[in-house]
Amino acid sequence: MTRRRIAFGLTVGITVLLAGLPGAAGAAGTAKATCAHQSGATFAADADDLVVGPLRFVGLRDIADVDASNLVQHGGWKSPAVLRAGHVATVSVDRSARSRVRLDYLHTGSDSFAALPHTVRFVACSRGRSMSTLDGKPVTFWSGFFRTKTTTPAPGCLPLTFRIDGGPPRHRRLPVAGGSCTAE
User: Fold this and answer.
1) Ramachandran region of residue 36, left (φ > 0), alpha (ψ -120 to 50) or beta?
2) What distance in Å separates the CA atoms of residue 110 and residue 27, rounded to the nearest whole number?
3) 22 in a structural domain
4) Over the stretch 17-47, which tens digit does the pLDDT of each residue have?
5) What whole-number distance in Å separates Cα of residue 98 and Cα of residue 95?
6) What is the pTM of this model?
7) CA atoms within 13 A of residue 77's CA, in its CB half-sphere
8) Structural domain of residue 33, as residue ranges?
9) Is residue 54 part of a domain?
């Protein structure tokens, strides 16, 4: 094979690969966080964590009492995602809040709120590949944020839908910045 053909094949291969990466152009909607995206840390269970089956968002319940100006200043709320080894969890911001809240767990480098996904499918590593622990047990950890649109006031309620290991949807509604969540 000539150098020209090798270079062309490599360029096409890289282009196809990049087009399929979360955060690539047009990828807003659903993204996939895998073992390749994990960070490493040690965690202990805390009552301020939001827990849905094997998935935990560290400190997410604290968003209820945060000052709205803090959300605007920081562009959202930092809440690491921690998933027990071998599980898959899909998290979606419900449609009613997608114009105000997005998920930022893949660190694509985009400053565009609209380019961030409203849904992330977290795929945990196996026990042997997990770089983190929760109370001494292997977990996969992704550093990330619930990004808020900084040009609007903080939402009063954060509605989320979870699917764990392909099971039925589980809904959670979290008050934000002193807001309340009323029944729909």
Assistant:
1) alpha
2) 12
3) no
4) 223 333 333 346 899 999 999 999 999 999 9
5) 5
6) 0.81
7) 26
8) 27-175
9) yes
Q: 124: which 2 tokens?
A: 């945990």
Q: CA 111 to CA 115: how far, in whole Å?
A: 8
Q: Could you give the strand order of the β-sheet that contains 42-43, starting from the edge strand earlier in sequence?
A: 42-43, 132-134, 137-142, 81-84, 55-57, 50-52
**Is residue 181, in this structure, part of any structural domain at all?**
no
Q: Is residue 44 part of a domain?
A: yes
Q: Tell me the CA distances in angstroms from 71 to 64, 68, 117, one per residue in order.
A: 11, 5, 18
Is 109 a residue whose pLDDT tops 90? no
Six token digits for residue 3 = 């150098």
Q: How many domains does the chain have?
A: 1
* Burial group, residue 157, by CB count within 10 angstroms (0-12, 13-18, 19+): middle
* Side-chain-facing half-sphere of 146: CA atoms under 13 Å: 30
Query: Hey, which bits of the chain come out as E strands?
Result: 30-33, 42-43, 50-52, 55-57, 76-78, 81-84, 88-93, 101-104, 119-123, 132-134, 137-142, 145-148, 157-164, 170-175
- Cα separation, 106 vs 56, in Å, equals 17
11: amino acid identity, one letter: T
Task: For the chain, report the end-to-end CA distance as a whole number of angstroms.
Answer: 63
